[in-house]
Amino acid sequence: MRGSGKEFTFFRGKLKLVQPEAHRVSVDLVLFLSKVRGVRRSSKVADLGAGFGFLSLVIAKKFGAKVFALERDGGMFRLLEENVKRNELSNLVFPVRCDVRRVDEFFKRGSFDVVVTNPPFFPHGKGDNLHSEGDTTLGDFLRASSYLLRDGGYLNLMIPSFRIYETFITLQPLNLPPRFMTLVYPKVSKPPKVTFITSIRNVPGPVHVDRPLIINTPEGRYTQEVEGVLEGLL
Predict the structure, then answer these.
(1) How far apart are the C-alpha atoms of 125 and 132, rounded to whole Å?
(2) H-run or E-run covering 152
(3) Pairing mode, if any, of strands 44-48 and 149-160?
(4) What 3-state class would DSSP assign to 184?
(5) C-beta of residue 146 within 8 angstroms of C-beta of residue 186
(6) Of all helices (H) and strands (E), which one includes residue 45?
(7) If exposure means fewest CB atoms within 10 Å of the residue's CB, which of 2, 19, 70, 144 is most exposed?
(8) pLDDT per residue over 90-113, tens digit each?
(9) Among positive and negative, which fits the CA dihedral 8, 13, 27, 101?
(10) Per-position DSSP letters for 187-217, written without gaps between them
């Protein structure tokens, strides 16, 4: 995979990553981690579509929880394994070469306390190969999440905001009622770009909508809230 040899550091050197050139860590992904709910030290976490392991590694470092990082792409999986070794987290992060449509071949139903996932953003036919659906859809990720989670388990999901309605109507019959939502805006003057949703399996109730999370000031700098997240996440 091109660009796989260069190491990047994050959080004042606390995390080391090798990233592919076409799929780098974004500020959205860091903010998503600040809104992940339900993770404790004793939690068993599944990261669906783990890529090169950013979410898995940070969750393991931040909470001390065991994370099973599921990824099917061969190139990404090799980077995932390499990043686990570079960060000396083989006792907490367990790479699994797995298609999310076949999680039942690897795990029993209800095996996890928490699922985190950042599925491909765009419906089939839009965007590049790394960011759009191919043979695996948003619905496949959500069905896998419902299968893996115990009752009362938390699904933490990052989606583009234009897919909120689609996501809500897909979650409901899977017994994953949305309970928390955060809309993320590039600037005050722009519409929301991404949305973070937390569902709790078989625990219905009202949806708590957080106050808007705004990434940049009108001058193009990170807002004070975002700077605080970037400084204090790990």
Answers:
(1) 7
(2) strand 149-160
(3) unpaired
(4) strand
(5) no
(6) strand 44-48
(7) 2
(8) 999 999 999 999 999 999 999 999
(9) positive
(10) STTS---EEEEEEETT---PPEEPPPEE-B-
